[in-house]
Amino acid sequence: xxxxxxxxxxxxxxxxxxxxxxxxxxxxxxxxxxxxxxxxxxxxxxxxxxxxxxxxxxxxxxxxxxxxxxxxxxxxxxxxxxxxxxxxxxxxxxxxxxxxxxxxxxxxxxxxxxxxxxxxxxxxxxxxxxxxxxxxxxxxxxxxxxxxxxxxxxxxxxxxxxxxxxxxxxxxxxxxxxxxxxxxxxxxxxxxxxxxxxxxxxxxxxxxxxxxxxxxxxxxxxxxxxxxxxxxxxxxxxxxxxxxxxxxxxxxxxxxxxxxxxxxxxxxxxx
Length: 271
Fold this sequence. Notes:
By secondary structure, the chain is mostly helical. It is 72% helix and 0% strand. It has helices spanning 3-33, 38-59, 66-91, 99-108, 112-130, 132-136, 148-176, 196-211, 220-236, 239-250, 252-260.
């Protein structure tokens, strides 16, 4: 077993242990508040925590090449933007729970707390796995410079964050207008995709895949995360739960929207 691979496995194990403790504490707080949505805030800020720790250790002498620094800075900025957006939405309205968790409450009833204990651990494991591109971008002893592929990846990640930010702003503006209550947002990017924010989120990981490419790992941890994120967004906790809740709350209007606009991959609106 190579030294970089062993070091990556060790770092991932330590991160999983620490993440499990943090998410267990979050479970206790969420149960006390009776709002399970707060895990989304912790999950989003968690990446910044890992990246900032790497930068902190680098500041005090941990060898890290230009690629690792670039990846850590990009991850921090992406994580802080997403986490801040969710913190404002979730923590500012603790009396309201995200629709995905309301749907899960309806399914699990009195067993919701036990289900959430499992779900929170899955979130800790997912955080660990999705940090593999970041952890692998700075193999033990690597001090090499950034290369063109890393800057291309940064450009892709920046475009993805812009897509997310624009989609979030368009949806927030739509919801602020009382005249739109009960209607479906089809403005801007939402006319191209039913979930442009999820598409942007996935595209971030494509950027991270390119940014994490190096001779030691050949981008394989990043590729794994691209596939994993696509699966989660399209098959598990992203689109399926969101659309079930929207069909319940908006009925035929959302069913009509589904028939006309693609779920994930954007395309020009059909008139």
